[in-house]
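Q: Start with the shorter request: fold the first protein.
A: Done. Sequence, then structure:
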Amino acid sequence: MANIVGVITTKQGSVAGGAPIFIAEDREDLQRISHLLEKVLDCAAHEVHEDLFIIVNRKS
């Protein structure tokens, strides 16, 4: 089962939920934060659209 462990967006207020939400200043910052969290958390970053990435843990 996959779990969303983080959400990164450039549009504050556009997402909600139980996972931590990180607000990026621009697209470059969005990609930098997503890549960093992907490595630190040993998870996968997925681009949902140009303003939103999710960090997913697929490990049981």
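Q: Next, the second protein, separately.
A: Sequence, then structure:
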Amino acid sequence: MTAIEKEYRIIPLHKRPDLIPDCCTLLNSEWPRSETARLKFLNVSCDEFPICLILINKEERVLGHCKVSLIPRLRHSCFIQSLIIDYQRRSQGLGSRLLRGAEEHVAKKGIKNVYLITKGQELFYLKNGYKTCDPFKASGINDVVYSSAAFTKAKLKEKSIQSCGPPPPPMPNYQMPKFYDLGVLTQRTHMVKRLSSQ
């Protein structure tokens, strides 16, 4: 057992509801939302899925969080979101520890594939064994998992046929500021890791 494993524990948030306010603070430090929305996001944690896992130290301070949900249309697959480590404790291996703990937790429940979407943290996930994959949609009313580029193109073509007329004309004499690059702002990387059977 390493020093990191001795000093830190990963537990389901619903087993320690007293730590929910600390978890709200941690998540809002990176992605600000209303307390109501944040509590709704965290209070769904249960023994099955979705589950919020937290990384705590010996003093029981919340240092990390991730939420794991099933992907309904992909068998034996889950989706990790909102993986975060306290800003002051980053670059100490805690993110990898939390990610590994989440993978071990879901593997015990029969999960074989772990998916995630990231923007700017690709190197961290590559280092932890993830590979880029085709885009997928993990949640929402219209769950669609795009499993191949051909399927994606077919779906996009189908949607364009269903549109109700041509797009509106561009605003007259308006140019997008050079620093505002929509491609950069919306670019997200879809990644997957196949868990080895244990």
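Q: Describe the second briefly.
A: The helical segments are 3-7, 20-30, 35-42, 94-107, 122-127, 149-161, 182-186. Residues 94-107 form the longest helix (14 residues).
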